[in-house]
Amino acid sequence: MRASSFPAALSLLVFALVGMVFARPTEVYAPPLTFPSVNASLKAGGRYNVTWDTSKAPENITNDRGRVVLAKDGVQDPDHPLAKGFLLLDGRVEVTIPKDVQPGNAYQLVLFGDSGNYGPRFTITK
Ligand SMILES: *[C@@H]1O[C@H](CO)[C@@H](O)[C@H](O)[C@H]1NC(C)=O
Ligand SMILES: *[C@@H]1O[C@H](CO)[C@@H](O)[C@H](O)[C@H]1NC(C)=O
Ligand SMILES: *[C@@H]1O[C@H](CO)[C@@H](O)[C@H](O)[C@H]1NC(C)=O
């Protein structure tokens, strides 16, 4: 087992190193959300700036336009994005929390990006 897994691990390492040296000219960018922060309390119907950290943005971004989707218990509502078409490099976008969402504490915003980047869990109140 050891004898056969070692070369596999080694080739993975080589792949990783080669990938680092020959980095793609454009990169998919999924910046971390900074607001709503963990356990923040937002009001249904309220207007907020969603923010994210753009300090580590790659020079050339493939996906330069973003979309923000609300999720509850990890389940997204992709049909009703809270915002879309904004520039990811802006680092913020204004959204309105829908008036009709159930109050609760298992909400997250998901920033796209490419595959969707879940922010911290926060609470929505009436
Ligand atoms: C970004 O794109 C420009 C223009 O195509 C290129 O000159 C530059 O090397 C690229 N930068 C990176 C980090 O890939
Ligand atoms: C957030 O709330 C959860 C559940 O009440 C708690 O376990 C956790 O410690 C809180 N985290 C912070 C950073 O306040
Ligand atoms: C969002 O941020 C912008 C720029 O700082 C500010 O002008 C705007 O009033 C903010 N919106 C809200 C809802 O706080």
Structure, described:
The protein has 126 residues and is of the alpha+beta class. It has one domain (33-125): Sandwich (Immunoglobulin-like). It is 16% helix and 37% strand. It is built from 1 helix and 10 strands. The strands form 2 sheets. Strands 2, 4, 5, 6, 8, 9 and 10 form a 7-stranded mixed β-sheet that branches. Strands 1-3-7 form a 3-stranded antiparallel β-sheet, with no helix packed on it. The longest helix has 20 residues, at 2-21. It is globular. The model has no long low-confidence stretch (mean pLDDT 85). One 2-acetamido-2-deoxy-beta-D-glucopyranose (NAG) is lined by residues 38-39.
How many DSSP H or I helices?
A: 1
CATH topology: Immunoglobulin-like
Question: Please, what is the oligomeric state?
Answer: single chain
Task: Please state the second-level CATH architecture.
Answer: Sandwich
Topology record:
Blueprint: H1 2-21, E1 33-35, E2 41-43, E3 47-52, E4 65-72, E5 75-76, E6 83-87, E7 92-96, E8 104-112, E9 117-118, E10 122-125
Parallel strand pairs: 2-10
Antiparallel strand pairs: 1-3, 3-7, 4-5, 4-6, 4-8, 8-9, 8-10
Bound molecules: 2-acetamido-2-deoxy-beta-D-glucopyranose (3 copies).
